[in-house]
Design goal:
Shape: globular
Order of helices and strands: HHHHHHHHHHHH
Radius of gyration: 19 Å
Strand content: under 5%
Structural class: mainly alpha
Number of helices: 12
Number of strands: 0
CATH superfamily of the largest domain: Hypothetical protein, domain 2
CATH architecture of the largest domain: Orthogonal Bundle
Helix content: 55-70%
CATH topology of the largest domain: Endonuclease III, domain 1
Length: 244
Protein backbone atom coordinates (compact mmCIF):
# COMPACT_ATOMS: atom_id res chain seq x y z
CA UNK A 1 0.00 0.00 0.00
CA UNK A 2 1.43 3.41 -1.02
CA UNK A 3 2.02 5.86 1.80
CA UNK A 4 1.42 9.58 1.41
CA UNK A 5 4.64 11.60 1.63
CA UNK A 6 5.37 13.54 4.80
CA UNK A 7 8.05 15.87 6.12
CA UNK A 8 10.56 12.99 6.29
CA UNK A 9 10.11 11.93 2.65
CA UNK A 10 13.54 11.67 1.04
CA UNK A 11 12.52 11.64 -2.65
CA UNK A 12 11.55 15.21 -3.56
CA UNK A 13 9.72 13.96 -6.66
CA UNK A 14 7.06 12.34 -4.48
CA UNK A 15 6.75 15.40 -2.28
CA UNK A 16 6.65 17.94 -5.10
CA UNK A 17 3.73 16.15 -6.74
CA UNK A 18 1.80 15.99 -3.48
CA UNK A 19 2.50 19.68 -2.88
CA UNK A 20 1.38 20.50 -6.41
CA UNK A 21 -1.87 18.55 -6.10
CA UNK A 22 -2.74 20.01 -2.69
CA UNK A 23 -2.07 23.58 -3.75
CA UNK A 24 -4.00 23.10 -6.98
CA UNK A 25 -7.00 22.13 -4.87
CA UNK A 26 -6.58 25.32 -2.84
CA UNK A 27 -5.87 27.79 -5.64
CA UNK A 28 -7.70 26.12 -8.50
CA UNK A 29 -5.88 24.57 -11.44
CA UNK A 30 -5.63 25.08 -14.31
CA UNK A 31 -4.82 28.73 -13.63
CA UNK A 32 -5.52 31.22 -16.40
CA UNK A 33 -2.58 33.12 -17.85
CA UNK A 34 -2.53 36.62 -16.40
CA UNK A 35 -1.80 38.35 -19.70
CA UNK A 36 -1.04 37.64 -23.32
CA UNK A 37 2.03 39.64 -24.29
CA UNK A 38 4.04 38.71 -27.35
CA UNK A 39 7.51 37.45 -26.29
CA UNK A 40 9.28 40.76 -26.95
CA UNK A 41 6.77 42.61 -24.80
CA UNK A 42 6.96 39.91 -22.14
CA UNK A 43 10.74 40.35 -21.97
CA UNK A 44 10.40 44.06 -21.24
CA UNK A 45 7.53 43.47 -18.84
CA UNK A 46 9.58 40.89 -16.94
CA UNK A 47 12.53 43.26 -16.65
CA UNK A 48 10.26 45.97 -15.25
CA UNK A 49 8.65 43.60 -12.75
CA UNK A 50 11.87 42.81 -10.87
CA UNK A 51 11.38 43.83 -7.22
CA UNK A 52 8.32 45.85 -8.22
CA UNK A 53 4.66 45.44 -7.30
CA UNK A 54 2.52 44.17 -10.16
CA UNK A 55 0.45 47.37 -10.29
CA UNK A 56 3.55 49.55 -10.57
CA UNK A 57 5.39 47.40 -13.11
CA UNK A 58 2.19 47.19 -15.19
CA UNK A 59 1.83 50.97 -15.08
CA UNK A 60 5.48 51.41 -16.09
CA UNK A 61 5.02 49.01 -19.02
CA UNK A 62 1.89 50.79 -20.24
CA UNK A 63 3.58 54.19 -19.91
CA UNK A 64 6.52 52.96 -21.98
CA UNK A 65 4.21 51.64 -24.70
CA UNK A 66 2.24 54.91 -24.71
CA UNK A 67 5.38 57.07 -24.93
CA UNK A 68 6.98 55.26 -27.89
CA UNK A 69 5.35 53.89 -31.05
CA UNK A 70 7.13 50.52 -30.95
CA UNK A 71 10.16 48.75 -29.50
CA UNK A 72 12.40 50.23 -32.21
CA UNK A 73 11.41 53.66 -30.94
CA UNK A 74 12.41 52.64 -27.42
CA UNK A 75 15.74 51.26 -28.64
CA UNK A 76 16.57 54.56 -30.36
CA UNK A 77 15.45 56.79 -27.47
CA UNK A 78 17.74 58.61 -25.04
CA UNK A 79 18.07 56.72 -21.78
CA UNK A 80 16.62 59.66 -19.83
CA UNK A 81 13.35 59.45 -21.78
CA UNK A 82 13.04 55.73 -21.16
CA UNK A 83 13.83 56.24 -17.49
CA UNK A 84 11.13 58.91 -17.20
CA UNK A 85 8.58 56.64 -18.87
CA UNK A 86 9.23 53.73 -16.47
CA UNK A 87 9.45 55.84 -13.33
CA UNK A 88 6.73 53.77 -11.59
CA UNK A 89 9.06 50.75 -11.56
CA UNK A 90 11.69 50.36 -8.87
CA UNK A 91 15.21 51.42 -9.85
CA UNK A 92 14.27 53.02 -13.20
CA UNK A 93 17.79 54.46 -13.39
CA UNK A 94 19.13 50.89 -13.61
CA UNK A 95 16.35 49.33 -15.65
CA UNK A 96 16.27 51.95 -18.43
CA UNK A 97 19.88 51.42 -19.61
CA UNK A 98 19.48 47.65 -19.21
CA UNK A 99 16.36 47.60 -21.39
CA UNK A 100 18.11 49.70 -24.03
CA UNK A 101 21.19 47.45 -24.00
CA UNK A 102 19.02 44.35 -24.44
CA UNK A 103 16.92 45.84 -27.24
CA UNK A 104 20.03 47.00 -29.05
CA UNK A 105 21.68 43.57 -28.66
CA UNK A 106 18.61 41.83 -30.12
CA UNK A 107 18.46 44.31 -32.98
CA UNK A 108 22.15 43.85 -33.75
CA UNK A 109 21.85 40.05 -33.86
CA UNK A 110 18.42 39.59 -35.41
CA UNK A 111 17.90 42.77 -37.45
CA UNK A 112 14.45 43.23 -35.87
CA UNK A 113 12.89 43.51 -32.45
CA UNK A 114 10.89 40.31 -32.41
CA UNK A 115 11.36 37.15 -30.38
CA UNK A 116 8.72 35.10 -32.17
CA UNK A 117 11.46 32.90 -33.61
CA UNK A 118 12.01 31.41 -30.13
CA UNK A 119 8.79 29.47 -30.62
CA UNK A 120 10.53 27.32 -33.23
CA UNK A 121 13.48 26.45 -31.01
CA UNK A 122 13.72 23.72 -28.35
CA UNK A 123 12.98 25.23 -24.94
CA UNK A 124 16.51 24.83 -23.58
CA UNK A 125 18.03 26.35 -26.72
CA UNK A 126 15.61 29.27 -26.55
CA UNK A 127 16.45 29.88 -22.91
CA UNK A 128 20.18 29.73 -23.66
CA UNK A 129 19.73 32.31 -26.43
CA UNK A 130 17.90 34.67 -24.10
CA UNK A 131 20.42 34.22 -21.31
CA UNK A 132 23.22 35.39 -23.59
CA UNK A 133 21.61 38.83 -23.53
CA UNK A 134 23.00 41.29 -20.96
CA UNK A 135 21.37 40.90 -17.56
CA UNK A 136 19.01 38.03 -18.49
CA UNK A 137 18.96 35.09 -16.10
CA UNK A 138 16.93 31.89 -15.78
CA UNK A 139 13.87 33.54 -14.22
CA UNK A 140 13.45 36.00 -17.08
CA UNK A 141 14.17 33.44 -19.80
CA UNK A 142 11.56 31.09 -18.32
CA UNK A 143 9.05 33.92 -17.92
CA UNK A 144 9.41 35.00 -21.55
CA UNK A 145 8.77 31.47 -22.80
CA UNK A 146 6.06 30.54 -20.30
CA UNK A 147 4.08 33.76 -19.77
CA UNK A 148 4.11 35.10 -23.33
CA UNK A 149 1.90 33.97 -26.19
CA UNK A 150 4.56 31.34 -26.94
CA UNK A 151 3.21 29.32 -23.97
CA UNK A 152 6.27 27.06 -23.79
CA UNK A 153 7.05 24.51 -21.07
CA UNK A 154 9.49 26.47 -18.90
CA UNK A 155 9.36 26.84 -15.10
CA UNK A 156 10.00 30.31 -13.65
CA UNK A 157 10.95 30.55 -9.96
CA UNK A 158 10.35 33.80 -8.11
CA UNK A 159 11.18 34.65 -4.49
CA UNK A 160 7.84 33.34 -3.14
CA UNK A 161 8.13 30.05 -5.05
CA UNK A 162 11.72 29.73 -3.88
CA UNK A 163 10.81 30.36 -0.22
CA UNK A 164 8.08 27.70 -0.20
CA UNK A 165 10.44 25.21 -1.86
CA UNK A 166 13.07 25.79 0.83
CA UNK A 167 10.65 25.58 3.75
CA UNK A 168 9.06 22.38 2.48
CA UNK A 169 12.50 20.83 1.98
CA UNK A 170 12.40 20.54 -1.82
CA UNK A 171 15.70 22.41 -2.06
CA UNK A 172 18.36 23.35 0.51
CA UNK A 173 18.35 26.83 1.99
CA UNK A 174 21.80 27.40 0.48
CA UNK A 175 20.51 27.06 -3.10
CA UNK A 176 19.96 30.48 -4.64
CA UNK A 177 16.99 31.37 -6.84
CA UNK A 178 18.95 31.16 -10.10
CA UNK A 179 20.35 27.63 -9.71
CA UNK A 180 17.06 26.45 -8.18
CA UNK A 181 15.34 26.67 -11.58
CA UNK A 182 17.00 23.54 -12.92
CA UNK A 183 16.67 21.60 -9.65
CA UNK A 184 12.97 22.33 -9.21
CA UNK A 185 12.17 21.71 -12.87
CA UNK A 186 13.98 18.34 -12.72
CA UNK A 187 11.71 17.23 -9.87
CA UNK A 188 8.61 17.57 -12.07
CA UNK A 189 7.47 14.94 -14.58
CA UNK A 190 9.30 15.42 -17.90
CA UNK A 191 6.08 15.05 -19.89
CA UNK A 192 4.29 17.95 -18.19
CA UNK A 193 3.06 20.52 -20.67
CA UNK A 194 3.30 24.30 -20.45
CA UNK A 195 0.03 24.66 -18.54
CA UNK A 196 1.05 22.27 -15.78
CA UNK A 197 4.44 23.92 -15.35
CA UNK A 198 2.75 27.31 -15.27
CA UNK A 199 0.29 26.00 -12.67
CA UNK A 200 3.15 24.69 -10.54
CA UNK A 201 4.86 28.05 -10.51
CA UNK A 202 1.63 29.93 -9.88
CA UNK A 203 0.38 27.82 -6.96
CA UNK A 204 3.75 27.94 -5.18
CA UNK A 205 3.99 31.67 -5.77
CA UNK A 206 0.43 32.27 -4.58
CA UNK A 207 1.04 30.13 -1.50
CA UNK A 208 4.13 32.16 -0.68
CA UNK A 209 2.16 35.39 -1.01
CA UNK A 210 -1.01 34.34 0.81
CA UNK A 211 0.09 31.84 3.44
CA UNK A 212 3.84 31.13 3.60
CA UNK A 213 4.94 34.75 3.92
CA UNK A 214 8.50 35.77 4.67
CA UNK A 215 8.02 37.17 8.18
CA UNK A 216 4.83 35.55 9.49
CA UNK A 217 3.97 32.26 7.76
CA UNK A 218 0.46 31.09 8.64
CA UNK A 219 1.50 27.53 9.44
CA UNK A 220 -1.69 26.84 11.40
CA UNK A 221 -3.81 27.02 8.24
CA UNK A 222 -1.27 25.66 5.79
CA UNK A 223 -2.37 22.60 3.78
CA UNK A 224 1.28 21.55 3.53
CA UNK A 225 2.08 21.52 7.25
CA UNK A 226 2.59 17.75 7.49
CA UNK A 227 5.01 17.97 4.54
CA UNK A 228 6.93 20.98 5.82
CA UNK A 229 9.95 20.59 8.14
CA UNK A 230 10.05 24.35 8.71
CA UNK A 231 6.37 24.51 9.65
CA UNK A 232 6.66 21.58 12.04
CA UNK A 233 9.70 23.12 13.67
CA UNK A 234 7.84 26.40 14.07
CA UNK A 235 4.85 24.58 15.57
CA UNK A 236 7.11 22.86 18.14
CA UNK A 237 9.11 26.03 18.82
CA UNK A 238 6.83 29.01 18.13
CA UNK A 239 9.55 31.57 18.85
CA UNK A 240 11.86 30.11 16.21
CA UNK A 241 12.62 32.18 13.13
CA UNK A 242 11.18 30.47 10.03
CA UNK A 243 13.51 29.29 7.30
CA UNK A 244 13.43 31.67 4.34
Amino acid sequence: MDMAPDATTTDPRDKVLEIHHRLCRVYGCPIGYFHGHDPMSELVSSLLSHRTRNADSGAAFEALRARFPDWSGVAAAPVAEVQAAISRATWPEQKAPRILAILQAILAERGELSLDFLGEMPVEAARAWLERLPGIGPKTSAAVLSFSTLRRAALPVDSHHHRVAIRTGLIPATLAVGPSHRVLAAQLPPDWDAQRLYDNHEVLMLHGQRCCSYLAPACGRCPLLDLCPSGQERREHPAATPRS
